[in-house]
Amino acid sequence: MPIALLEGRAVARVAGPEAAHFLDNLLTARAPAPGAARYAALLAPQGKILADMFVLAVPEDGFRLDVPAPLLAELLKKLKLYRLRARVEIEAVDGLVAGVAWDGAAVPEGAPAFEDPRLPALGRRFLIEAGAAGGLATVPEADWQAHRIALGVPEGGRDFAYGDAFPHEADMDQLHGIDFDKGCYVGQEIVSRMQHRGTARTRVIPFAVNGPVPAPGTPVVAGAKTLGQVGSGADGRVLATVRLDRLAEAREAGLGIEAAGAALVPEPLAWASFPIPGTER
Which pLDDT band holds residue 280 (cuts at 50, 70, 90)? Predict the structure, then answer.
């Protein structure tokens, strides 16, 4: 049964009597109830993703934020800037390791755990003391990344750039990372406008690769036109950020889609409500 430890993750603690209200005013999704978790993001006022995270509500001790480690220091700085006079404690939590178990594997006993709120097939995530993590992993993290890519789920820093992508472009609207009926949060007006006007032309979508898997950052092209760029890839598949309107034009013109000479064929996403040109039945 596959269990992987995820390098490059870090944990923050947000607690205090006003912690839930504080997070509600900042993040794209509501703060979860005790024992539950949500996928959410902190946005810039212009609506771009500064950091995405898993927010786990720990009974009687506020929330744990499972975030990419390179973003932790800046995220803490931003949260403290927004704290003002709110009765909230904000700090890094050292000594915790993030992991994931999928395909029926059991999470370690006693570790705070939660079903991945983006997609149940991704498995259950958990946080465990570093001293108890030795020997726990049954597969390398690369197996987990391949599993994620096979499901078509983007990951920040691999498939979209922090500070540059809107939530819709990272498919957060499809992966339960945005509550469109909750109150205001930073960047909310931009996100709501994109939702109601249907202006999200750029998306991360999967492609089957006929040839060597292109490296991240490789341009995706059709004829002389660039559609986007490749993100993460494994096992003959890549995720790529592309303009869907340009992909549709290329398909209508009968042009092949390529990256570094390898042919790309768009694949459907079972969990997505938006159409992917070239995958119509």
Answer: confident
* Residue 56, both tokens: 């786990």
Q: Where are the alpha helices (DSSP H) in 10-111?
A: 19-24, 72-83
Q: Is the pLDDT of residue 59 over 80?
A: yes
DSSP H or E stretch at residue 171: none
> Of 220, 185, 231, whose CA–CA distance to 41 is shortest?
185
The residue behind tokens 């609207």 is 173
- The residue written with tokens 């492609």 in the block is 207
- Which regions of 183-224 does DSSP assign to beta strands (E)? 202-210, 219-222
Residue 278 has, within 13 A of its CA and on its CB side, a CA count of 22
Does residue 242 sit in helix, strand or coil? strand
Domains and CATH numbers, the chain: 3-150 (3.30.70.1400), 201-266 (2.40.30)
| Residue pair 203/241 in contact by the 8 Å Cβ criterion | yes
**The predicted structure's pLDDT at residue 40:** 98
Burial class (CB in 10 A: 0-12, 13-18, 19+), 106: exposed
Residue 281: what pLDDT?
64
State how far the Cα of 244 lies from the Cα of 204, in Å rounded to an integer. 9
**Dist. CA 37–CA 176, nearest whole Å:** 11
> Could you tell me which residues come within 8 angstroms of residue 241 by beta carbon, excluding any fewer than 6 positions away?
159, 160, 165, 169, 202, 203, 204, 228, 229, 231
Mean pLDDT of 215-236: 97
* % residues pLDDT > 90 (the chain): 94
The per-residue pLDDT for 143 is 98
